[in-house]
Amino acid sequence: MALKRRNKVEVSFSMASMTDIVFLLLLFFMITSTQVAPNALKLLLPQSNNQTVAKAITTISITADLKFYINENGDLKKVAFSEIEPFLQKVIKTNEDTYIALHADKTVPIEQVVNIMNIAKRNQIKLILATSPEEE
Fold this sequence. Notes:
By secondary structure, the chain is α/β, with parallel strands linked by helices. It has a domain at 47-133: Nucleotidyltransferase, domain 5. The protein has helices spanning 16-35, 84-94, 110-122; strands spanning 47-48, 58-62, 68-72, 75-79, 99-104, 126-129, 132-133. The strands form two sheets. A five-stranded mixed β-sheet has the order 4-3-2-5-6, with helices on one face. It has a two-stranded parallel ribbon with strand order 1-7.
């Protein structure tokens, strides 16, 4: 008496688990994207027609209420005026051809802008004064 087993392999693929995974990923990315806040300050920049193509390594921002911010590796960091020069000297050591961008609100007294320009001049850093496009 010969017994023969019949083992048939059924070839099928269930998409139910795949749709669950896609749904969970969609939820994850929707939740995390709403949690990300852009690191930007709302500044009313002076207007100009001239634009530069130089790439700034870091930015210094002065708000209307005379608070100073430094963009350090994509993170805005509030600093005192006395901390700006040591930070820039540290940046110079890593990069020879250094450009920094200065974003100053148009209501900031020119004295504050000139103070930052003097720091850049003392440390031989090229400074880019950020402006917004002039309206026609």
